[in-house]
Specification:
- The chain is elongated and about 80 Å long.
- The protein is of the alpha/beta class.
Length: 150
């Protein structure tokens, strides 16, 4: 019962080529007879189209892209917060990380209004949706802006 093994047929032996005619992959070693791809170091770079202007150069690159400057938010729903926090606790990025509700490199947190909240909690987050704000305030909670980092 303690032996784990892959099911039959799940693993295949590597095919070794270029080891003589008796191996069934000798001679040209499955590369065909002549040409660029039969040579060692042969082949073309990714995107090469035989001399035709490649697609990545045919398509115009115009305009401004905001990708490098976009802000990444962790998304947390009030229903999940309500399940994991006791009444009177503070919900902030640090406490969310401590409770393992968020992880990763994003620095900002946004609270969304999915789910129900029935506890009085203090939210110290970067952004909160209008629906989530209404639910938090209806439950008696409060929302504060995070302190500016020095």
């Amino acid at each position: 019962m303690e032996e784990l093994r892959a099911p039959k047929g799940a693993t295949k032996k590597k095919r070794i080529v270029g080891r003589g005619i008796g191996s069934n992959r000798g001679g040209t070693a499955g590369r065909g007879n002549k040409g660029q791809n039969s040579r060692s170091g042969g082949g073309v770079r990714p995107g090469f189209e035989g001399g035709q202007m490649p697609l990545y150069r045919r398509i115009a690159r115009r305009g401004f892209s905001n990708y490098r400057f976009k802000k990444i938010f962790h998304i947390v729903n009030v229903g999940e917060v309500s399940k994991r926090y006791a009444p009177g606790e503070t919900v902030s990025e640090e406490t969310l990380r401590a409770k393992r509700m968020i992880k990763g490199i994003a620095k900002s947190v946004k609270i969304l209004g999915s789910g129900e909240i029935d506890k009085k909690l203090v939210f110290v987050v970067d952004m909160i949706s209008a629906g989530a704000r209404a639910k938090v305030e209806a439950a008696g909670g409060s929302i504060q802006a995070p302190a500016a980092e020095a």
